[in-house]
Specification:
This protein has 531 residues and is of the alpha/beta class. Helix content is 44%, strand content 20%. Helix 12 (349-369) links the parallel strand 14 (335-342) and strand 15 (377-380). It is globular and about 70 Å long. The chain binds GDP-alpha-D-glucose.
């Protein structure tokens, strides 16, 4: 058995391709005989990576979702799953604490105040090391590891230290904030150093990658030009990593030996064909009609689908809708809002408070404007099967995505992929990553309640021809850039990290003194600009 003691020499494992994420892509269930078993959790990531996993005979490392679950490695649907156990204390401090109550609000522009606790950070380090150790022992000599998301930002560096022979990728599913916000984090330097252990760091938007590169320049003084960051080779593991990639390394005349890291945007997507396939199913279309009938057949159905999270702008959407009813610009007989708010992070206090606020607002609007036969807001605090989600997308004339900050927002893309009839209007926040791609959506600033109300009215009044023109353009984009394209472009960049700058294929080169001086000037200018 390979040792998990971080001081001992690691042994290579058997898998050439390994994905590491906080959660495994399965849920524990109890079957009809009362036996515990696993079910694949529906999600874009597993769909995207399944073919790669099968081809490479890959493995997935993550937590099963239950506390103190010391499950042995197992195979499910042809994928090797390697569980990492988390105790109650790990869940409280690393997951609910540092991940969901420090990093999540900080990375979403401090919409809610982040809490900084040293105890949470210390547990984040311990748990990240556990994931890194697991990856180090599972991956074959010269293999590839792809680490997912903000819960595991220290894993790339920890893994490189143990296994310099590996190629390491990281993808951040949430935004990366501007330096003025990021710099609040007491452990800001350790986090970026952790990420720089990767060869390629993927972000949702170009702006996120830019924010990251700026943080690297400001905090570490490394040169970052375009999408390439030069990381000075200092640690033994870096030299070993570099040697693994080219035949010889050396230093000359004060120039620095650097390892190049690529930080750039790889906007995530969905399995668009699968959504269209579901939407074309007669039973799902019948269900969409049934939903409209059940709502009393209003002229217009508006829809919101979100995890109940303060980043999603549910309150702003409700405010705008309530004011339209109050102004009598819309009538409750004509327009209904369906709001699915799926339960999320229910043990975190901020989420409990948010739920109270949202439900108070819904109750007030319904109390003021609903009639016996028409409910203003149909509010659903449930999770639904994917088939029901697609039926809701088909039933909705207008989809409201009003996030205050969102890495991408897959719901926007799912709505578009489902509308094979080229109908429906997407109202989309400019603060969601999806707005970089879905340019013909009705784009809104959700903080501007008047602007939001106008967009909602514009959507209700839009002609069929315009709806169709806008939807066709968005569908083309989502069909072309689906989740398979996302994973293959990331993995291609990982195979040739410096290609886009026409640098040598190895990710190691000499940084000249003049480049270093140029870098210092850039840094000085940035400091001036932000003061
Ligand atoms: C993070 C980033 C980024 C929701 N309720 C139900 C349900 N869902 C599904 C949706 C969609 C997914 O959950 C939510 O994805 P989003 O992208 O909208 O948002 P986050 O959960 O915050 O995801 C985000 C994403 O990671 C990927 O990188 O886009 O910015 O925050 O697929 O359909 N699915 C079902 N029932 C529900 O009740 N079946």
């Amino acid at each position: 058995m390979p040792s998990s003691d971080s001081s001992s020499a690691p042994l290579a494992g058997e898998f050439d391709f390994v994905v590491v994420s906080n959660r495994l892509p399965v849920d524990r269930i109890t079957d009809e005989n009362g036996e515990p078993s696993f079910r694949t959790s529906p999600g874009g990531l597993v769909t995207a990576l399944e073919p790669v996993m099968r081809e490479a005979d890959g493995a997935w490392i993550g937590w099963t979702g239950s506390a103190d679950d010391h499950a042995e490695p197992f195979e499910h649907d042809g994928i090797h799953l390697l569980p990492v156990a988390l105790s109650d204390t790990d869940i409280e401090l690393y997951y609910e604490g540092f991940s969901n109550d420090t990093l999540w609000p900080l990375y979403h522009d401090v919409i809610a105040p982040p809490a900084y606790h040293r105890e949470w950070w210390e547990r984040y380090v311990i748990v990240n090391q556990r994931f890194a150790d697991r990856a180090a022992e599972a991956t074959a000599e010269g293999g590839t590891v792809w680490v997912q998301d903000y819960q595991l930002q220290l894993v790339p560096k920890m893994l490189r230290e143990k296994r310099p022979d590996l190629t390491i990728g990281f993808f951040n599913h949430i935004p990366f904030p501007a330096y003025g916000i990021y710099s609040q984090l007491p452990w800001r330097t350790q986090i970026i150093q952790g990420l720089l252990g990767a060869d390629v760091i993927g972000f949702q938007r170009t702006a996120d990658a830019g924010n990251f590169s700026r943080a690297v320049r400001r905090l570490l003084g490394y040169q970052a030009k375009g999408t390439v960051i030069d990381v000075p080779v200092e640690a033994e593991s870096d030299v070993a990593s570099a040697k693994h990639r080219i035949s010889s390394v050396g230093r000359a005349g004060g120039d620095k030996l650097v390892r190049t890291v690529v930080a750039k945007a790889f906007p995530i997507s969905i399995d668009a064909a699968r959504y269209e396939e579901l939407a074309r199913r007669p039973d799902i279309q019948a269900r969409a009609k049934e939903i409209r009938d059940g709502l009393g057949n209003p002229k217009v159905v508006m829809l919101g689908v979100d995890r109940l999270d303060y980043t999603k702008g549910i309150g702003h959407r409700l405010k705008a809708f309530g004011e339209l009813l109050a102004d009598k610009t819309i009538e409750v007989e004509d327009v209904t809002l369906v709001q699915v708010a799926s339960p999320s992070r229910e043990r975190v206090q901020t989420y409990q408070t948010l739920r109270d606020e949202i439900e108070l607002t819904v109750g007030r609007i319904n109390g003021d404007y609903s009639t016996i036969s028409h409910t203003a807001i149909s509010y659903l605090h449930h999770g639904y099967p994917r088939e029901e989600m697609v039926a809701l997308y088909l039933a909705a004339d207008i989809m409201l995505v009003t996030a205050l900050r969102d890495g991408m927002n897959l719901v926007a893309k799912e709505y578009v992929a489902s509308r094979f009839d080229n109908d429906g209007v997407l109202v989309l926040s400019e603060f969601a990553g999806a707005s970089d791609e879905l340019r013909t959506a009705l784009r809104v600033n959700p903080h501007d309640i008047e602007g939001l109300k106008e967009a909602m009215l514009q959507a209700t009044a839009m002609t069929k021809a315009e709806r169709s023109r806008r939807m066709r353009a968005m569908r083309k984009r989502v069909q072309e850039n689906d989740v398979a394209r996302w994973s293959s472009s990331f993995l291609a960049a990982l195979a040739t990290p410096s290609d886009d700058l026409a640098l040598p294929k190895a990710n190691l080169r000499m940084q000249t003194r003049s480049e270093a001086r140029q870098d210092e000037r850039t840094e000085a200018r940035e400091i001036e600009e932000t003061q």
